[in-house]
Amino acid sequence: MALEALIFDVDGTLADTERDGHRVAFNQAFVEAGLDWRWDVALYGELLAVTGGKERMRHYIDRYRPDYLKPADFETLVARLHVAKTRHYTALLGCGGIPLRPGVRRLLEEARTRGVRLAIATTTTPDNVTALLHHAISPEAASWFEVIGAGDVVVAKKPAPDIYYYVLDRLRLAPAQCMAFEDSENGLRAAQAAGLKTVITVNAYTRAHDFRGAAIVLDHLGESGRPFQVLSGYAVNGATYFDLKLLGQLQADA
Ligand code: XBP
Ligand code: MG
After folding, report:
1. Which residues, 6 or more positions from 121, have their beta carbon under 8 angstroms from its beta carbon?
2. Are residues 152 and 244 in the same domain?
3. pTM, 2 dp
4. Ligand 1 pocket: which of 19, 81, 123 to mutate (most atoms within 8 A of CB)
5. pLDDT tens digits, 77-116
6. Any catalytic annotation for residue 169?
């Protein structure tokens, strides 16, 4: 079946947003609220097992803070903290500190030139997606993506496949007509469960994840002067960066 669309995860895939973006913003929200919750780099790596900021805060309290006495309106507190965290995160992006990962802009531009449709499937909030696209690509980059499936638009976040079903439904495409791009095991499980072939680009937090079943696992998408490393999944014949030609070969394979 011909390739019609690329569906991208955001955090960790389009950009390395977790350690110096989301994590920092969570901590700023905690300080502002007068809470002693602090997420260092290592702890945040463990907390990433749970997708979604609100879900992650609940998990932190349940799992790591038995000493914390939940107030009756704990859910309201979590929601308020998440709003504040989104404010801090989007302000951080506004400072331009978080660039796209290697090869991302090149692949997006190639897809646009060749009429391959683009979409997003993420657990983060819509505001965070548009802020990242605006600051890391261009003010009109959100319009490059035909569907942006984000955050609470589905009830169950990744590794549940719901966000991918949501995006496929709006694209009116079958999984075999699309390729997903992810950086984490939770993301891969979500895409796989929706029937999508998946390209993985790892990062420092996800390098040791289990990526069995991925079409290919790379360190990044690569650029002409900056070759990718294939970590597993597919014997690439001479290619040094990921483009639509290589994608076509992956699609034809298996
Ligand atoms: C990323 C996530 C998100 C972000 C924080 O998932 O798990 O929870 O860490 O985002 P994906 P919010 O890579 O699938 O986008 O705080 O906005 O939920
Ligand atoms: Mg991700």
Report:
1. 7, 8, 9, 149, 163, 164, 166, 167, 180, 190, 191
2. yes
3. 0.96
4. 123
5. 999 999 999 999 999 999 988 999 999 999 999 999 999 9
6. no
